[in-house]
Design brief:
The complex is a heterodimer of chains A (about 300) and B (about 260). Chain A is built from twelve helices and two strands, in the order ααααββαααααααα. Chain A has about 300 residues and is mostly helical. Chain A has a two-stranded antiparallel ribbon with strand order 1-2. In chain A, α3 (about 60-85) packs across α8. Chain B contains eleven helices and ten strands. Classes of the chains: A mainly alpha (about 300), B alpha/beta (about 260). Chains A and B meet through α6 and α7 of A and α2 and α3 of B.
Chain lengths: ~300, ~260
């Protein structure tokens, strides 16, 4: 039971991180019809900015966190304005490839700065020692995991309110539903795209921080974690925010359970799955779900008339 | 006054859709723009509201001005701010959103007065009031058209451009819509009514323009157009009693007439 709870807690905190990146994917997909492969890069760049401010420049941690996350949002805005705006009306395929280019550009720049040694994110609670952890009847919960979960839940609630109540939130939904009709209402669609990327950047930066915070550290391979949000969105359906969250939970929990139960499975069945199978498991789930439901669990079915 | 001068529009750099269209919509009037499919009526509306870009179209000549101020090629949100709202062809409501959200979107550029305007529009359309929290996609066709018109009124426009509001509606609903348009006009909104239903459009408008293949071929007071022999023949499907339907030769006659009118 303890192991089960431990695996659940870790799985859910991973799910929180994935859902932050995944929602960014979905927002961009819904508004521009493009799967942006630059999302993981934005996540690690966000982490890099926080680290550079908090550790290298000695900015107080909370301020560094705030500035780093905001700057990543602004970076998303700049990427949209300079690279993607001129591509409006171009084939979706070209735009998707362009986002791979942006991903490589951002990551090589960041890798150059990271260098060989892993970077730390700074520590707001030195007494706990790198965020620390708590014990609940044998289950170890890292404070960072709690923080990731609460942040993700708060952000999802905030986004929900934003989409229902705020002028720009409703405009964003309208734009993703029918761009032309949105234009006709006097909505500045360009500004909406900018806002989408700003929000996606902020979400990515939060995820980047939780991926690399504490003892996890930021290294040249950190982005792989953020990339695992991709199977999450594919499972949930590319155009559904609840789908992205549920997809993330599926991926996160799978990863958690596989990590903890793989050894038992191997000893009982005698099948060797190999090291780090938990990292592979999400992609296997994605494969199975795609075979059964090509549009994901919650995705809108594409109807194409020939 | 909204005036369109000598407008020429080209789609995808090669397809000439409007060639020298000029007309005026005087303040406080209802002006009808009639024409068959593909004559360029919707393109005229798109050029006024700045939506040509989406369809890869360009204004290559001419200009559009509202009360003397040039608005050619302004971006769509600026044009809405100048007091020009449109009801798009086929209604184009946001069917996944609720009725009230649709209205709020119509008031996107006019957020100061939004609650007042929502109340005003809902009072105007009692059918919408009952279903204001419901998804707009579940409204009937007539209600959706009401919603589309209500949404356009949310920006408190001076000019309302209606693109085929009678499309796909039952005759009784068409009557309702035409009464509504007159009502809106009485409240001080100038209306451009683009229609295929010539009978309805000419009956409620002050002035009518008739378009064919990118040209305006005729314009006159609506009452005079209603009594015009050619218009009766080709747009109202009426001909003088006892005569046979005109043949193609007469269509040619009509074309000749077009030449010296334009």
């Amino acid at each position: 039971m303890t192991i089960f709870l431990q695996a659940t807690v870790e799985g859910l905190s991973l799910a929180a991180i994935y859902s932050l990146v995944a929602i960014g994917f979905v927002l961009i997909y819904k508004s521009m019809d493009v799967l942006s492969f630059a999302q993981p890069a934005l996540a690690v760049v966000g982490a890099g900015l926080i680290s550079s401010l908090a550790v290298d420049r000695g900015v107080p941690f909370w301020l560094a966190l705030f500035i780093g996350i905001t700057l990543t949002g602004v970076l998303g805005l700049i990427v949209e304005r300079t690279f993607l705006r001129p591509m409006v009306g171009e084939p979706v395929f070209s735009v998707a490839i362009l986002t791979i280019g942006i991903d490589i550009l951002l990551r090589t720049t960041l890798d150059n700065w990271i260098g060989l040694n892993p970077r730390y994110m700074g520590d707001p609670f030195p007494t706990f020692g790198n965020f620390g952890s708590a014990q609940f009847s044998g289950v170890t919960i890292k404070y960072l995991e709690i923080a990731a979960l609460t942040t993700a839940i708060l952000i999802i609630i905030a986004l929900n309110i934003f989409f229902k109540k705020s002028k720009y939130g409703v405009a964003m939904r309208a734009t993703s539903f029918d761009q032309e009709a949105a234009l006709a209402q006097g909505i500045n669609v360009g500004r909406i795209f900018g806002l989408v990327w700003f929000i996606a950047g902020i979400l990515a930066a939060f995820a980047g921080f939780f991926i690399t915070g504490g003892f996890n550290t930021l290294s040249q391979t950190s982005f792989v974690v953020a990339l695992r949000a991709l199977p999450a969105v594919v499972i949930g359906g590319l155009d559904s925010i609840p789908g992205a969250v549920i997809g993330s939970i599926i991926i996160g929990l799978t990863q958690g359970y596989v990590a903890y139960y793989q050894y038992d499975f191997e000893t009982i069945t005698g099948i060797t799955l190999g090291n780090g199978f938990s990292l592979l498991a999400p992609y296997i789930i994605m494969f199975v779900i795609l075979v059964l439901k090509p549009d994901g669990l919650f995705g809108t079915k594409e109807v194409e008339r020939v | 006054m909204l005036s369109v001068q000598n407008l020429e529009v080209v789609y995808q750099d090669v397809i000439l859709v409007l060639r020298g269209v000029s007309f005026e919509i005087p303040k406080g009037k209802i002006v009808a723009l009639l024409g068959s499919n593909g004559s360029g009526k919707t393109t005229v509306i798109r050029s006024i509201t700045g939506l040509l870009d989406v369809q890869n179209g360009d204004i290559t000549k001419g200009n559009i001005s509202v009360d003397g101020e040039d608005i050619t090629n302004l971006n769509p949100s600026k044009i809405v701010e100048k007091g020009i709202a449109q009801v798009m062809e086929g209604r184009r409501i946001f069917s996944e959103l609720t009725v009230v959200e649709n209205l709020r979107l119509g008031g996107h550029t006019n957020s100061a007065n939004i609650q007042n305007n929502i109340d005003r529009v809902l009072d105007m359309f009692p059918a919408l009031k009952d279903r204001q929290k419901g998804e707009a996609g579940y409204l009937s066709g007539g209600e959706q058209q009401m919603l589309a018109i209500g949404r356009a009124l949310m920006s408190e426009p001076e000019y309302l451009l209606l693109d085929e509001p009678s499309l796909g509606l039952a005759p009784k609903l068409v009557d309702q819509i035409s009464v509504l348009i007159q009502e809106i006009n009485k409240q001080g909104v100038t209306v451009l009514l683009v229609e295929q239903n010539a009978n309805m459009a000419l009956n409620i408008s002050d002035h009518g323009y008739i378009m064919e293949t990118g040209n305006i071929v005729m314009d006159n007071d609506s009452q005079k157009l209603l009594n015009d022999e050619d218009v009766r023949e080709f747009y109202l499907g009426l001909n003088a009693e006892g005569t046979k339907r005109k043949s193609f030769k007469d269509v040619k006659h009509y074309k000749r007439k077009k030449r010296w009118l334009s």
